[in-house]
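Narrative progress, year one. The postdoctoral researcher (J.K.) led the effort to move from monomer predictions toward full complexes, under supervision of the PI. The following entry was the first complex the group processed end to end, covering 352 residues in total.
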Amino acid sequence: MALTNDIIQQKLQEKFGDAVTNFSQPYGMLTFEAPKEMNLKVMQFLYDDDQLAFRFLTDLCAVHFPDNKGNELAVVYHLHNLVENVRIRFRVFTSIDQPDVFTATQLFSSANWQERETYDFYGVNFVGHPNLKRILNVDEMDYFPMRKEFPLEDQVRIDKDDEMFGR
Amino acid sequence: MDVREQIKESNKDFAGQIIETPTGGIISGTFDDIVNWARSNSLWPLTFATSCCGIEMMSTASAKYDFSRFGFEVARATPRQADVIIIAGTIVNKMAPVLKRLYDQMPDPKYVIAMGACAISGGPFFYNTYSVVKGADHVIPVDVYIPGCPPRPEALLHSLIALQEKIKLGWTRAQIRENSLASKV
Ligand code: SF4
C-alpha cells in the first residue's frame, strides 16, 4: 500500500497525540509542528517505523519570525522516504533568547554541517553537536546575519525603484 | 586617436638602441628600460578566479581571444611563479586573508589587476552585505581596474595592455601620482 500523507498523519497522531500540531499539506507536502523538546523523538519514530522509514535528511534550516514573541526561531526539517519517494517537513519553534534545540547528528550524519550552517546564520544552539562553530562566515563575526534585525538593504534608498525588482 | 593606434604608437620602439657594426650589432639602452620592456612582454598570470568573472578570464585565455598573443600565456597555478594576479571575482571576508597571502607569496615585482565590479567595489553585493569586501584594494594594492560585470574579454585584454604600458613607463607610485598617467599613455 502506498504511503500517503493521511497515513503518516494518522500514525503520528496515534503515537504523539496532541503534541504534534498544525498539520497542513501545502503543495501536497505534509507539514506539521512539534514542541522543540520532542524533535528527536519525532525524527526517531519517523526513522524507525518500517512503514514510514524517513531515513534521509534532505534539508535542515531555520526561519526567523521577529513578531512571533517567545517563538521567534523555527528550525525546519525536511525528511525523505527514499523507498516510497515521499517527503515531509516539520518545524520546531524556539525562543530567540534561549535558542537551544537538540542536535540531530546522532540520527543523521548529514545534519552536522547543516546544523553548523544554521548556527552560523541564525544562531540556533544545537545542544550536543560535536563541533558547533561557524562554517561559511568568518570566525570573528559577532552576529547572525540572516536574523531579521540585520538590515539586508538600506531602506531609505530612493534610487532603487521597487517596480524594477518585482517588489 | 584610436586606442589601438595609440598603443601601437607608444609600443613600437624597442626600449634600447641598436648600433650596427660590421660584425653584427650592439644593443645599448638604459638597463631599467630594457628590463621593463622584457618584463612587460612576459607576464605570467596566477590562476586565480573567485567567481563569475573567472569564466570570462578563462575565455580570454582560450583560443578565441587568446591572451598569449600579448605575452600572458604561462598561467601559473602557484603564486611563487606568477607576476600578475588578476582578481577575477568577488572577494568575501573569508577569502581576503587568502588573497593577501597569495599576494605576499608572489615574488617582486608583482602586479595586480582588479577585474570586474566586485573586485573594484564589491559590485552588485555592495549594499549592506555581511560577507563581501567592498573592493579588493582594501586588501592589496591594485594597478589596473577594469569595470564591467563581467568585463568582456576585450576589456581584459585592454587592461593587460594598459598594465604593459604602465610597466614600460617604469614610474614609481609617487611619480604616477604626480604626473597624470592619462596624458602620457
Ligand atoms: S563583477 Fe559581476 S561577473 Fe564579475 S564576479 Fe562580480 S558579479 Fe560576477
